[in-house]
Amino acid sequence: MFGIKLWQNWNIVKMSRSNLRAIITVMSSVAQTKAPPHARILVVDDEALITGALTRALTSLGYDVAAASTGHEALTALQSWPRDVMVLDLALPDMSGVEVMARAAQVCPGLLVIVLTGQAELDDAIAAVKYHAVDFLLKPAAIEQITEAVVTALRGQARRLQERVALRILDEAIDALQGIDRRPRVVRTAPPAPMLHVPPLLLDRQEQTVVVAGDNPRTCKLTQGEVDVLAALMARPGQPLSARELAAAGLGAQEDEKVMRGAIVHCINRLRSKLEADPNQPRLIRTIRGAGYQFEPIR
Questions:
Q1: Engineered SS bond to 240: which of 30, 48, 80, 294, CB 3.0-4.6 Å?
Q2: From CA 299, how far away is CA 199, in angstroms rounded?
Q3: Mean pLDDT, all residues of the chain
Q4: Which residue has the higher pLDDT, 275 or 192?
Q5: Residue 267 belongs to a domain with what CATH number?
Q6: Does residue 199 share a domain with residue 133?
Q7: Could you tell me which of 187, 150, 285 has the C-alpha nearest to residue 229?
């Protein structure tokens, strides 16, 4: 019996050593990951100058590039020939870029989307993250900046694939050595309260309205993005929140601050224009240099 057990343990150790060597090999290649050659790119923009310049730049890097000027053309192209990356302008003549992203996610799962937009709207940024956009660039963006975003996205995709292989091998080794129960744990959290009251504001999440109390009380209508950001600030009065934290509160995930910063700034400016007596000298939503934004209760 002892001999059988020893043989079983030795086989586990040998398998673990083999897995460890495989992990080292994969992680070494992860560190040297480059953007895959011959990737297929779709450029969607109704401005011919942009699509032409971007197509030439990406083709010169060895990519297979196609262009579309409308949302319907883009979806037709994805159905006939799946792509690795789509560079998408949100302002298209026939449908919204958000709708294109939603339908593209069904047609071409795993598609990397780089969003181009002329306005840093928080709701657009939230939609971009919801549909797994990997970058969010404000127009006018330089062609070099867009091509760099494409290369970075492809490099990141290749790295993630290699990391998944390494993690799978590591999981197998851990399971073999420890027999860990790897069933996912279900974490239940209470839903946020529909009403949030921090003087002088009363925020109604469901109705997407906020009542501003005071000498001149008023009710303001908010977008969903504005509700999320304001709720995060009101939940921690007197404490600064960074753009990353505000984006995380609205999206439920930690996202790249580079993608969200411009949209958060734009959202804060809109909130101030609705809530502050003087938006140029805000008292409710203050900018804390080097830290972010802070809600100040006024009783």
A1: 294
A2: 6
A3: 77
A4: 275
A5: 1.10.10.10
A6: no
A7: 285
